[in-house]
Each structure stands twice: as C-alpha cells, then as structure tokens.
Design brief:
Elements lengths: L2 E5 L4 H12 L3 E6 L12 E2 L5 H7 L5 E4 L7 H6 L6 H10 L5 E5 L25 H15 L7 E6 L4 E2 L9 E3 L8 E2 H13 L6 E6 L1
Parallel strand pairs: 1-2, 1-4, 2-3, 4-5, 5-6, 6-10, 7-9
Antiparallel strand pairs: 8-10
Helix pairs in contact: 1-6, 4-5
C-alpha cells in the first residue's frame, strides 16, 4: 500500500485518480480547498497547493503526491477566471520543496507542440484567446518543474489530449507519447490509470509525456 496525497481531489481528474488509487488498495489523502463543499469525499482535508505552510502540513509521511488542481471547473468558469499567472509555478515550487519521493502532475494539452514544433497555445484556431492565460500559467508550472534539476523529488507530468472525455469508459490501457500533441482522445478513468501506474511503477522521470488512447 502506498500513501498518496491528491491535491485537487474534488475536480474531475482528482476524483478519477482518487477512485483508481482506492480501488487498488492505496491510502489516499484527498486535499481540497474547502472540505465543506465536498461532503461526498470522505475524510477530505483542507489544503492550498500554492501555500508552503499548508502543503508542508499535509505531505510528510506520503510516498507520492498528485497535482490535479485546477482553479476553475469547465470552460465558462475558466474563461471568466482572473488567474494568478504564477499559480502553477507556485504549486510546483511548494510541492518540490516538500521532498516527497514521487510527484505526478496533470498537464494541459495546449503546451504540447504541433507537427511543426510550434506550441499549440500559440494557435488561436486550437486555443481560443480567452484560455491563453490559463495555458501560459500551466506552461510556467512545467518550466518550474524542469528547472528543478536531477536531485530531490522525482516528478513526471502526464498531459492528456484536448479530447478528455468525462463520460468515457475505463479501458485500462493507454499510449504514451512525447512533446507532440497526439490525435487520440482519453477518458478521465484512463488518465487516472496512467497516474497511478506512474506511482506504483515509475517509468518516466523528471520529464513531461503525453498520454492518450
């Protein structure tokens, strides 16, 4: 059994990872910003992934951390959000400083590359302008992870495709790609399968990969 702290356990990805980890017999600490809003998540604890004191009070004793936090749920909320551009870089900073052995972060497809090596977030035909700030903040978080070097926490970022299906079934399989955006899709349960696989038997170290079906 592995002790896993899941930040963002109330979101779509966080809920899927929590369910997958529990189904496999792991111990889960479900971290949310306001436990009173998540009565359906037993034992949820309050935590702010960008606050060092908050994170440092939760993470010790855990074997792995999952960073699945999103400051908003759904396209409408995301478009209206006044996002701190340093949100994801602060999250990476706080989690790296805990010294947790394994960190698995959920990435965003828009900072993958197209077939010409150009970031998708630079193409308004792929990413509408109202979501650009969110994509840039995600990219800053990835840069902070990459700047950590080879010592300390062993991290990986798993980036799903644009078509991430809420209603998709758990197939129990997935493919791994590199920096170029894949053409496939993925369900949240299969994203969760990949996350927990990378905790149980890490294959990728201090890098970002894409995951898709």
């Amino acid at each position: 059994m592995t002790n896993i702290a899941i930040f963002g356990a109330g979101g779509r990805a966080g809920r899927a990872v929590t369910a997958e980890a529990l189904q496999r017999g792991h111990s889960v600490t479900a971290v949310v910003r306001d436990p009173s809003r998540y009565g359906d998540i037993p034992g949820a604890v309050r935590g702010d992934v960008t606050d060092q004191a908050s994170v440092s009070a939760i993470v010790p004793g855990h074997d792995a951390v999952v960073q699945a936090v999103s400051p908003a749920s759904g396209p409408a909320e995301l478009a209206a959000l006044e996002l701190d551009p340093d949100f994801f870089s602060k999250a990476a900073e706080t989690l790296l400083h805990t010294g947790v052995p394994r960190l698995v972060a959920i990435g965003m497809y828009a900072d993958l590359l197209d077939g010409n090596g150009r970031a998708l977030l630079e193409d308004p035909g792929v990413l509408p302008v109202q979501f650009r700030a969110f994509a840039l903040a995600h990219t800053a978080g990835l840069r902070r992870l990459r700047a950590a070097g080879q010592g300390g926490t062993d991290w990986v970022m798993l980036t799903p495709p644009a078509m991430l299906r809420v209603d998709g079934p758990r197939l129990g399989r997935y493919r791994i790609g590199g920096e170029t955006a894949p053409s496939g899709e993925l369900s949240y349960p299969d994203l969760a399968t990949a996350v927990v696989d990378e905790i149980e038997q890490p294959r990728f170290h201090r890098t970002r990969v894409s995951v898709f079906n």
